[in-house]
Amino acid sequence: MEKTIRLTVDFHNPSHLAMFVLSVGALVVPLTMLCYVGLQAVLGQAYNTFDQNPQFPVDQEHFSQSSNNAYSSEIYSVGHHQVLSNHRKVYNQFAASLFQNLHEGICNPDNSTASQLTRDKNVIPVHSHNDYWRTLPVFDAFSNGMNSIEADIWLKNDPTNDGAMTLLVGHNEPYLQPQHSVENLYLKMLNNLLDEVNCVGEIPSSDFRKNGFFYNDPHTTTYLYIDIKTESTETYKVFIRTVVENTTLIKNGYLTYFDFSKKELVWGPLTLVITGNVPTEFIFKEEIDDPFNLNKRISFVDAQLINLDNIKSNNDSISVIGSGSLNEIVGTTGIKSFGGLNEEELSTMKKVVEEAHNLNIKVRIWDTPNWPVQIRDMVWKQLLELNVDYLNVDDLSDARKF
Predict the structure, then answer these.
(1) Which of 139, 180, 251, 373 is most deeply packed, by most CB within 10 A?
(2) Is 155 left (phi over 0), alpha (psi -120 to 50) or beta?
(3) Which long-range contacts (CB under 8 A, 24 or more apart) does 175-179 make?
(4) What is the per-residue pLDDT across 348-384, written as a single tens digit (0 to 9) for each?
(5) This model's pTM is above 0.90
(6) Listed residue (222, 241, 224) closest to 167, CA to CA
């Protein structure tokens, strides 16, 4: 026969309350310690695995596991009994193991870093929002098949270089780090990835179509959004000069551009999109003034989907992709139904998508719900059915599974 024991606690009685607190503490503390010991064991093993074998993994599954383990070591370094202040050490270890073909002068695109990242991963219509927050900027997105990434840039004095101007990457100004420049985190990495798959120095650079980043779709372009956070015109000028002077992205024919002489849009494996504080008037006048002496425009304005009038007469020469907030477009402050967008909202979104596509402008939608997951997934499904080209996503693994 089963017996039920009931414990009645009078919370107004100090002795009862004290006994209750002690009892709960006696249960919670051991459980907490057990979880902590287990966490230490897991993270310690993760750190030691990465520390002992920092070589770049060949298959994507290994890459995903290694990048997750690397992130764990950012939180605890149990084997070394210290807490890492940030994941710079992990990132540097990872970066040092890249581009072996390039460093050794080997022409083998099939064994390139990009190939190892993206092999057997089809490109999916996802934008890696705030990509620089990820454990491995650029690489986490690419390993999940995502060909749209984003970097927020700030024009700042570089204290390590006699106060010269530099472009730092970060979401909030107080947390910017001198070593986290757009050149180091993005431009050089992307440049090196493309150099490896195009065998720079082995094949004449101008007579063939350039390979892109993705093994299964080498001729698809990748969008690099540059979100300007400081004064628009000067920041933009410094960014373009950085691309021109400090990379070979133009020289090696990797960038999408608009040819001023031929009035022609030429696609490349990398497309630069300017968003945030956009110097629209300056960019509009580039075709007349040619301030960088390129005879072409190598960047494109992120069109505002709720106001496409500014680019209707320029389309290809100014914008190739546009963005819009779900809230601004359909006029809702939140999706309240598990059915997602209602008929009126779907109709409004459809018109916006069709208008953009008629101008040869791809569509990216941000500000979609993140939770509950059922609503998020339903809205994602509805947007893709309306031919939205890119979903703005924070959780890359969930988007990949979707």
Answers:
(1) 139
(2) beta
(3) 179/88
(4) 999 999 999 999 999 999 999 888 888 899 999 999 9
(5) no
(6) 241
